[in-house]
Amino acid sequence: MIHWNSFSDFLAMGGYGLYVWGSFGVTALIMVIEPIAVARQRKTTIARLKRQLRAESRSTEA
Questions:
Q1: How far apart (Å, rounded) are the C-alpha atoms in residues 62 and 45?
Q2: Tell me: the pLDDT tens digits for 23-54?
Q3: Three-class SS state of 58
Q4: Does pTM surpass 0.85?
Q5: What CA dihedral angle connects 34, 40, 45 and 48, to 10 degrees?
Q6: Considering all CA atoms of the chain, what is the largest pairwise distance in Å, rounded to the nearest integer?
Q7: Where along the chain do its domains lie?
Q8: Which residues cross the membrane (predicted)?
Q9: Residue 24, Cβ neighbours under 10 Å: how many?
Q10: Under a CB-based contact definition with an 8 Å cutoff, are residues 60 and 53 in contact?
Q11: Are 11 and 17 in contact (CB under 8 A)?
Q12: Beta-carbon neighbour count of residue 17 at 10 Å?
């Protein structure tokens, strides 16, 4: 079992704190950004497909 003498020792993680907490931070940031990016891409793709469908229906009507 790992035991730290203080909260600052816990944050330091035996000298690897910057790497450990930096990794957690990057992961958390990606977990926030990824769903936003997917939702935007989905919205863009749906709009593009709707425009394409309208253009195709206009060309078959003419």
A1: 26
A2: 999 999 999 999 999 999 999 999 999 999 99
A3: helix
A4: no
A5: -160
A6: 79
A7: 18-61
A8: 20-39
A9: 10
A10: no
A11: yes
A12: 14
